[in-house]
Specification:
The protein is an all-alpha fold. Among the domains are: about 70 residues, Alpha Horseshoe (Serine Threonine Protein Phosphatase 5, Tetratricopeptide repeat); about 70 residues. The chain contains ten helices and no strands. It is elongated and about 85 Å long.
């Protein structure tokens, strides 16, 4: 009770002394731009400091709610952490900013694949992406193949995987040198395509041909 009385007396004394005696409140502004927060988040993420990366992506979004890359990067963190609901939410918000974006659509598709639901919706989105030049990339075609496989369309899945591998082969044959663009097919993507093709053959083995007599 004594503490409460002392507090009230102090407050009354300050008011009686006039507003000039009240402490001045300073509001600190974030001097860093949204894009700079994203860059910091990427640096933290590469260093394995996931909590700090998440904090920076969230700060970028507070700074600019239309920060596409912050939404995608935050979604990626949720996806890696198996928080599929929040990952889906961030990817959908990213797609509101950039409709039809290949990266966001691709990652949203993996949410559906990991959850085992919404495959048809994800497939429809990916078919539209692949119809554009931006979507003719091995990792995008590989995801399309997996979606088609899970939607029980083995022939169409094989077409996607074959095209992805064809693009990888073009990378191998393309000249390299200063000023040349980097390969569109990394070793990780090549391994993914090969693994998914093996999965396709296990799920849908080719019919056994009758012996020729």
């Amino acid at each position: 009770m004594m503490v409460r009385i002392a507090t009230v007396v102090l407050a009354v004394s300050l008011l009686a002394a006039g507003c000039s005696r009240l402490p001045k409140i300073s509001v600190l502004e974030d001097p860093i731009s949204a894009s700079e927060h994203v860059e910091l988040g990427v640096a933290y993420e590469r260093n394995g400091e996931i909590d700090l990366a998440k904090r920076e992506y969230e700060a970028a979004i507070r700074k600019d709610k239309k920060s596409f890359q912050a939404r995608v990067n935050l979604g990626n963190l949720f996806l890696k952490g198996k928080d599929y609901g929040r990952a889906r939410e961030e990817y959908l918000r990213a797609l509101e900013i950039k409709p039809g974006d290949a990266e966001a659509t691709n990652n949203l598709s993996w949410v559906a694949l990991f959850q085992g639901e919404g495959i048809d919706e994800a497939l429809a989105r990916m078919e539209l992406v692949v119809a554009s030049p931006e979507g003719r990339r091995p990792e995008i075609l590989d995801t399309l193949g997996v979606l088609r496989m899970r939607a029980n369309r083995p022939g169409a899945a094989e077409e996607a995987f074959a095209l992805a591998e064809e693009i990888c082969s073009r990378d191998d044959a393309a000249p390299t040198g200063e000023g040349q663009a980097g390969p569109s097919c990394t070793e990780e993507v090549r391994k993914d395509i090969a693994e998914h093709r093996r999965e396709l053959r296990k799920r849908f083995p080719p019919p056994v041909r009758a012996p020729v007599r």
